Amino acid sequence: MHLRENPGMTTSGNSHTSTSVPITSTGTSPDAPSPSAFDVLGQQIYLHDRLVPIRDAKISVLDRGLLRGEGVFETLRTYNRIPFAITRHLDRMEMSAKASGISLPPRAHISEGIRVICETAEFPETRVHVTVTAGPGGPAPDPIGNPAPTFIVIAGSLSPALPEAAGRTGEKRGLRAVTLPWVRHENAALTGVKPTSYLDHLIGHKWAQQQEADEGIWTNSAKDITEATGSNLFIVHNGTIFTPPIEAGLLPGVTRNLILERCIARGIPTLERRLRLSDVFEATECFLTSSTKEATPVMELNRQKIGDGTHPVTDAILEDWRSWAPAHLDP
Prior knowledge:
The protein is about 25% helix and about 25% strand. It contains 7 helices and 17 strands.
């Protein structure tokens, strides 16, 4: 294993007055979709400064998040209706907004929106999607006027990390992954940022599904592994846990960083090193981490089995996580 050292709104009492459209999954009447069509829990979302029924929620057609992809977002999960690691998520959102030149509402306002939506969600454990766009400034490179940001919080259901549809059952099941045919540049303007312009990840995820895989893995211009389309990657080799460094061009995942900290605290050898595909094939285990995946084993990469099909280290990390995280909700 060759590991190298790191070298205008019309709702919610907002003052925007521009033309608006309902938030729907299609271009049809707002009466057409149901809450289940959005995979949204409950009947309301948090828009700007209050709860709004889904069918009445509207944003401006001039919103720069819609027209230019100019926005940032965070995805959290809850434990017993309390958002996990909210401080770290909001720290990262502020970093993304600064890098993107987007003004955020005050942190206390964002936190309140998250709290309200968590308390009103149908189930105690949910996925929470927090979005802030540059507001209704129109499609030109320079926005019209000084628009207020658009702020949306939506609670959605937590999907199983291991798809039952794939027919994998029992202790040896895990995700199938493939490497993507495109490069993720480690020095791009949005490297390390979580923008609403997420099309490259969506294309990568769809391409992976077309290959009958669950996840796609990005490599950078140096052919080093960076991350998956929606999660960070770890491998286990000779009892040591390895993960690519931030410099490889990946998003600094909240769960990634916390799992690194937990492993170090528990005395598990853990190193950030640049990884090649050959390193994954030589590993005994591979797993992905994210807020919603927690720690999920990867059993195959490019149709090649990883290790012997078991994942004791991943299982131990996940067991520790599920006992530790609900007891330390804002680490």
